[in-house]
Design brief:
single chain; 184 residues; mainly alpha
Amino acid sequence: MAKEVDRDGGLKSVPGPRSRFDELYRAHAVRIGRLCRWLLSDPGEAEDVAQEVFLKLHRALEEGTEAQAWEPWLTTVALNACRDRRRSAWWRRVWQPAVELDESKLPGLHRDAEEELLGGEERTRIWVAYRALSPRQREVFALRHLEGWSTEEVAQMLGMSSGSVKRHLHRAIGHLRRTLGGRA
């Protein structure tokens, strides 16, 4: 927060881009980091992309941009940044599809005793099945089931019809069920 001297000579806090950034970062950093991790699979790349997202937020606030709702804005920027990263030539050369998702390293996720019973082998099976989905199916699945968005919100975010979202989601869930033996 910026500081300003009031009439009595004391300092008072004045809301500004820095305080707004801090507030938005605290509210969305874990969610954006987790979304990037699900979409990219590589923890280092996901962290880099999440930082890029918040750098863009910082620039937008410095320029005086005021989104009607920052959550969808941040999600859009994160999705586009993840797509850009997947499309880049060096990403395709370096990316290792065998990288396993370690949920314990995802920020904001705390597993209870029951979840701890789910062994590494089962997590690996789930992660491999998820990574076999097309990029669009992963995006739809992540937004609908991991972020909890409605079908209409996902459709609007991805620029597709509700029917297309439902079709991608149906195919993704069908693939996961077949691959995991009906447990998806």
